[in-house]
Specification:
Largest sheet: 10 strands, antiparallel
CATH architecture: Beta Barrel
Strand order of the largest sheet: 4-3-2-1-10-9-8-7-6-5
Order of helices and strands: HEEEEEEEEEE
Low-confidence stretches: 15-22, 47-62
Mean pLDDT: 81
Oligomer: single chain
Helix content: 10-25%
Distance between the termini: 53 Å
Radius of gyration: 20 Å
Strand content: over 45%
Structural class: mainly beta
């Protein structure tokens, strides 16, 4: 191999390494505080406008848990193979290979989770009993945006949640 070939080979390897780094998935780890909800969550006890506008909660609609319509705070821990999301005292674990996790196993009302990447967006799916949810996480600078789709008992909601890193 001559000197020119070696230089070209090294340049190619460097270019491939830079391209691979540019396409890496974002890391959502951190504590996040809610800054914006669109559309806003109605005040507790407020009447709904019909058409399933207030559906999509789990238990009490305003509890701070995985099925909350707009959790005030989130804590996320991410590794190369998994992600854990904590809302209040609820903690959910997802593997990043789209495999189903069931906790506790063999329980019809267990929390079932799975996650997968769509480009740089992370899709988190979760189900407990008749409550279903999907969060699509994206990161831009220090801002976390979550498209939250919840369905429960026939009602459903979709909200865009914006969080700032604490």
């Amino acid at each position: 191999m001559n000197k020119r070939s070696v230089v070209l080979f090294v340049a190619l390897l460097l270019g491939l390494a830079i391209a691979a780094a540019a396409q890496s998935n974002p890391n959502f780890s951190g504590t996040w505080k809610l800054t914006k909800v669109d559309p806003p969550v109605p005040a507790a006890g407020a009447g709904g406008g019909g058409g399933g506008g207030e559906g999509g909660g789990g238990g009490a609609a305003y509890e701070q848990n995985i099925f909350s319509q707009a959790p005030d705070m989130l804590t996320i821990a991410q590794t190369a193979t998994g992600i854990t999301v904590q809302v209040g005292s609820d903690k959910e674990t997802y593997t990043l290979d789209d495999k189903l996790t069931v906790v506790p196993p063999d329980d019809v009302n267990a929390l079932k989770t799975h996650a997968h990447w769509d480009g740089t967006k992370l899709h988190l799916h979760y189900k407990r009993g008749m409550n279903f949810g999907r969060d699509i996480l994206s990161l831009s600078g220090g801002t976390l945006t979550i498209q939250r789709d919840l369905e429960s008992g026939g009602g459903s909601t979709t909200r865009m949640l914006t969080y700032a890193k604490q």
